[in-house]
Amino acid sequence: MYKALLIDDEQPAIQALRVLGQWESHGIDTILEASDGRQGLDMLVMHKPDIVMVDMKMPRMMGTEFLGEAVRLHPDAKYVVVSGFDDFQYTKQAIKAGALDYLLKPIKRQELNGVIERAVQELQADANANRKNIASGILYNISAPLLKEKLFADLMDNSGRYHQMEELEHLLHLDAERTTAMLGAVLVLNLDDVCQRRFKGDAASFYYAFTNGMNELCGEDAFSFKRAKGAQEIVVVLPMAEGAGNEQRTAVIRQFLAALHKLGGMFDTVCAAAVSEGIYRLDALNAGYEDASQQLEQVNLLQRAGKEEQLVYNEQLGRDAGEDARRETSVQIAAAISLLTRKEPFLQALESSGFRYAEQQLEEYWQMVLAAADFPIERVRMSIIELRMLAEGAIDRFSVSREERQSILMSFDSVLTGRVFTCAALHEITMNWFRTLFDRLAERGKPDDKLSPDKIKAYIDAHYAEDLSIATFTRQYFVSKEHLLRVFKGKYGFGIHEYTTKVRMEQAKRLLADPDVRIQSVGEQVGFEDVNYFRKAFKKHVGLSPNEYREQKLNS
C-alpha cells in the first residue's frame, strides 16, 4: 500500500484532491495533508510518502523551493505539481525539479486519476526512471500539443524566448542541428461556414479537430497548429531526414495534400495551401514560415481541377521555365484588374445618387476577376484594401457623423479585413455589404441636396478675409473636390478660387482709396498674410501694383 501527501495553502483545493482522486482503488490507503512547503518537508521526512502533490505558489515556501529540497531528501517519491498558473516558466521549473506531472486548477477527475495511476505504475516499475522519460510524461500530460505549439510559434516569430536549443531538444526529443523540416501553410477559406454548420460556431473546436487530423494523416512526427496572428491560418511542420532529396520531398508534399483532401471531405473545408521551397533546421523555422507564407500568397484562388474543388495549392515541384513565364504573365494580368481604375466613375455615380451604376461598377469588376485565369491570394488581400478605400470614399460624400462612419468601417473590417475567401464567396460578401451601405446612404438623400453654390458664393463674400480653401467646402458638404468645382463653375462660369480672388481684389481697391491705410494692412484685411504675395496677386489681377493703383485713384 502507498502513502500520499497533499500540500496546498487552500483547504478547498486539498478537499478537491481527496474527493476526486480514486485513492483506495490505486492502493493508496494513507493521505496526509500540509498547508505549506515547510510543514510539507517535515511530514516528508517523518512519513516518507510515495506520492506528493504540491501547489506551486504558497506562503513561507514556494513549490519550486519545496521540490528542490524534497527531491534531495526523498528522491524515491513521485512529485506532482498542482497549480493555477499555465506558465511555461513554472512548467520548466517543475521539470528541472523532477516532477512527474503538472496539473492545472481546477482539477479534473480524469486527469487527476490518470496521474495517480501513472505514479503508482512508475512506483511499481522503477522508482529511478530516467529524467528524460519523466519530462516526456510531463509534456504528454500537460497538454503537450499546446506546449509544442507555443514553442514552435515562438520560433517562427523569432522572439528568442525559447531559442535555447538544448532545452528544446530535451523537451521535444529532437536534435536541433540534425532535424530539418518543410513548412506548410494552410488557409481555411470557408472557415465561418464550416464552423457554423459543423461545429456550432465554435472555431476552437474546429481547429482542434482539424490540426489533430493533420497530425495523424501527415505522420507521427508532423505537427500542425493554428497561427495566432492569422485568423484562418494553420501551420504544419513536416519533418524530413537531413539531406533529403526530391524523392522524399515529393512524398512529403503528396502526403500533406492527401491529408488536406481527406479532411476536406470530412469537414467540407475549402483550403488554400503551400509548402516552403526550402528545407529548414529547427532553429531556422521562422525563415521556413516566411518562405511558406510567400508561396501561399501566390496560390491562385481561381485554380479548379476535378476533385480539387476543395483545395487549391502552389506545388513548387515539376514546373518548367515556360510554366513560370506563363504564371508571371497571368499575375501581371491579375494585378491590372484593379478597383482603383473604377474609383472615379464609382464615386461620381454616388454623388448623383446613382447607386445602381455604382453597384454595376463593382459587379463588372468581379466578373472580370471571375473570368481571369489567375487571381492569387496577395491580389485578394489588395482587393479588400481597395474595397475599403471605396467604402471610405462613398461615406465621405454623404452627411455621415464621425460615429456612424466609424461604425460602418468597423462592420467592413469585421467581415472582410484580414480575411481570405474564395473569389466566388468574396464576390457575394462584398456585393451584399455594399448593397447594405448604399441603402444606408440613400436614406441621407442626394449630396447635391446639401450642396448650394449660392451659399458658397455668399460665404466667400462674407469671409474673404479668412483662410479659404476648397477643403473648407468639401468637408462642409461631404463632396469631392472635382464635383464641388464642377457644380460651382457650372452655375457661375468661373471657379471658386477665381471668384475668391476677384472678391478680395475688389475689397483691396476700396481700401486703397484711403491713403491712410498702409499697403500691408490692406493685404491683411483681404486675406493675405504675406504683403509681397499680395502685391504680386494684385498686379496680376488689376495690371497695376497697389501703389500705382492708389496714385492713379488719388490723381483722378
TrEMBL record:
SUPFAM superfamilies: CheY-like, Homeodomain-like
CDD domains in alphabetical order: REC_YesN-like
HTH araC/xylS-type domain span: 454-552
Domain Response regulatory: 3-120
Subcellular location: Cytoplasm
Keywords, comma-separated and alphabetical: Cytoplasm, DNA-binding, Phosphoprotein, Transcription, Transcription regulation, Two-component regulatory system
PANTHER family: HISTIDINE KINASE-RELATED, TRANSCRIPTIONAL REGULATORY PROTEIN HPTR
UniProt-recorded name of the protein: Response regulator
Upper lineage: Bacteria, Bacillati, Bacillota, Bacilli, Bacillales
